[in-house]
Design goal:
Layout: H1 6-10, H2 18-31, H3 43-50, H4 54-66, E1 70-72, E2 78-80, E3 98-99, H5 134-145, E4 154-158, H6 161-172, E5 178-183, H7 187-196, E6 199-206, E7 209-210, H8 212-220, E8 225-228, H9 242-252, E9 259-263, E10 285-290, H10 292-295, E11 302-306, H11 308-316, H12 327-337, H13 340-366, E12 379-382, H14 387-396, E13 399-400, E14 402-403, E15 418-421, H15 428-442
Helix pairs in contact: 2-4, 3-4, 6-7, 14-15
């Protein structure tokens, strides 16, 4: 049998530095020469063939692994990663089950914009005009100024919170940089970090929010950015307490140049005060507030208040030539947010979500399941059995639930024995039936 060629031995991988070797593998993936599941040469074989130190080959595989392009299997070797199923928010399609995992606001509590549409007609906006309409700019600055020092407030507008977080990270990081994310974490943040090739460092969340020890450990690992949800953390519903916020600010005091992104996605709906982990001398920070939870997901617009340097860098990525936040959308947003009837609907919605979560937690308690009714659209419910098993049993009873496993950051995180349930739109009889079925499917957790 003929001996394999050098290309067979290394799959065509070339390079003398770790970065060059990793780029070579990426090029082979782009060309289709390497496919998901293909085995890569061992570190020894690759180093010997390329004439480099084995540490260089290890470093190259480390870059590829952190980018999610390869999977290290120990003695089984390193293989090209297969595309993993990506969980996403929203209603499930093609199912007859009652969906209690969607995480959506109640359509009946989203303000109707139709009566205000005539008020936004006017002169069309043209290229070169200010990115933010003057009326909306003034309203947003007044709103943000209650939580941000006015003399530090630089305002940027983006196409939603996900767009804001993605661009904030992009202006501060390069591929393989470390980012601290809450664990469990909002799905969109997991996707954003993974697809950009950043390295997610999990920070555990408890009932008071991001933990102090977790943040300290993440900073020790060299994170260059932190994404924190100060209230209504998704999926747990946790909100920062005064004590926790102060402790986190103390930890960050020694790291003033780490970018801190506070995603206050629930803002006007929240029943909890806004508490920041950004201290008065922190240099890099951004507060993001979207309107989608209370004006509806289709109103894809978010405000970002930040330090001047971050705002300048973000604005460079948001010029009208690259991103245009519709001025019609801006005018409609301003009309809604300054309308007394709309603000009344938003206030009632926030109270409704909180009351329904509290009522469902009380129902669960009667059945021996302890769940803390946090802030937000959903409830984080502990279960005694593995969450996927509980979800499967609930399917047999007609319910489609979302498991906590989907919100953890990866193999290094222990799958949570939790369900995230969206119950605010259930009638009392349905809520009682679901509470009983959750208890029957999981067993008591006291």
């Amino acid at each position: 049998m003929a001996e394999p060629t050098r290309r067979d031995e290394t799959n065509g991988i070339a390079g003398r530095t770790a970065a060059d070797i990793a780029d070579s593998v990426r090029a082979l993936l782009d060309e289709g020469a390497l496919r998901p599941g293909d085995a890569l040469p061992s570190v020894r074989a690759l180093a010997d063939h390329l004439g480099v130190n084995r540490n260089t080959a290890v470093a190259a595989y480390g870059l590829l692994s952190r980018s999610g392009l390869v999977v290290a299997g120990g003695r089984a070797g390193t293989r090209v990663a297969s595309p993993a199923r990506v969980a996403s928010e929203g209603y499930a399609t093609g199912t007859a089950l009652r969906d209690v995992g969607a995480g959506n606001p109640d359509p009946a509590l989203i303000p109707d914009p139709s009566r205000l549409l005539p008020s936004i007609a006017g002169r069309p906006a043209l290229y070169g005009e200010p990115v933010i309409d003057s009326d909306l700019d003034a309203w947003a600055r007044a709103w943000m100024a209650s939580d941000v020092a006015p003399d530090e407030l630089s305002l940027t507008l983006t196409g939603g919170a996900v767009d804001a977080v993605e661009r904030l990270l992009a202006q501060a990081l390069t591929r393989d940089d470390a980012v601290a994310l809450e664990d469990p974490c909002w799905l969109a943040s997991i996707h954003t970090v993974r697809l950009a090739g950043y390295r997610a460092v999990p920070v555990p969340v408890d009932h008071e929010g991001m933990t102090v020890d977790g943040l300290r450990a993440a900073l020790d690992q060299g994170v260059r950015a932190i994404v924190c949800t100060p209230r209504a953390q998704n999926p747990t519903g946790a909100s920062l307490t005064e004590r926790r916020a102060a402790s986190l600010r103390a930890v960050l005091a020694d790291h003033p140049h780490v970018l801190v992104i506070e995603d206050d996605h629930y803002s006007l709906l929240s029943q909890r005060p806004f508490l920041s982990i950004v201290g008065p001398h922190h240099r890099r920070w951004a507060l993001v507030r979207s309107v989608s939870k209370f004006l509806g997901p289709d109103m894809s617009l978010a405000f970002t208040a930040s330090d001047p340097q971050t705002a300048e860098r973000l604005a460079m990525r948001l010029s009208p030539g690259t991103t245009w936040v519709s001025h019609l959308l801006q005018r409609l947003t301003h009309a809604l947010l300054t309308d007394r009837e709309t603000r009344g609907v938003i206030a009632r919605a926030g109270l409704h979500y909180a009351a329904r979560n509290e009522a469902f937690a009380a129902r669960l308690a009667v059945h021996g399941v302890d769940a803390v009714p946090g802030d937000g659209l959903s409830l984080w419910v502990p279960v005694a059995a593995p969450a996927r098993e509980v979800a499967a049993r609930l399917e047999d009873r007609g319910w489609l639930a979302r498991t906590g496993d989907e919100f953890v950051l990866g193999a290094s995180s222990a799958p949570g024995a939790h369900l995230r349930l969206t119950v605010h739109d259930l009638a009392d009889a349905d809520a009682e039936a679901l509470a009983a079925d959750v208890a029957a499917s999981s067993g008591p957790t006291r």
